[in-house]
Amino acid sequence: MKFMLLMWSDGSYAGGDAAEDYAAWADYETSLKADGVCVESGQFADVSDALSVETDLTASNGEGGAPSHSSTTGRSGLVGYYLLECADRDAAVRHARRAPLYGSVDVRELAAQRR
């Protein structure tokens, strides 16, 4: 089963550029790979550049809305993701809890792909 871990920073940590921070994330990813569950991972650019776009279907005039800056502010917001292949949701949650993150992790199962 595939699960997406969405990493949400709560913005409370003022660090982030220290060698120890990079090492903690590198160790986390190394452990996911050693466990054979890491399919892909990525870090998002600074939240100050994020845009929220209203789709054409949502807009009342059918033309979509103008992009606006995301509602997250400061250092808080969606900061990264991991795509994991796990036996079940409980395993994905165990991996999510180990993330070196001040914030929370959304654990979402991917829908089965039709062939």
Query: What is the distance, rounded to the nearest whole angstrom, between the alpha carbons of the first and last residues?
Result: 16 Å
Fraction in helix: 10-25%
What is the SS-derived class?
alpha+beta
Order of helices and strands: EHEEEEHE
Uncertain runs are none
Portion in strands: 25-35%
Main sheet? 4 strands, antiparallel
CATH top level of the domain at 2-44 and 76-109 is Alpha Beta
CATH topology of the domain at 2-44 and 76-109: Alpha-Beta Plaits
Instruction: Give a count of the beta strands, DSSP E runs of length 2 or more.
Output: 6
Over all CA atoms, what is the radius of gyration?
17 Å
Question: What sort of overall outline do the alpha carbons produce when their principal axes are compared?
Answer: flat
CATH homologous superfamily annotation of the domain at 2-44 and 76-109:
Dimeric alpha+beta barrel
> What's the rounded overall pLDDT mean?
85
CATH-derived architecture of the domain at 2-44 and 76-109: 2-Layer Sandwich
Number of helical regions = 2
Biggest sheet, spatial arrangement of strands: 2-5-1-6
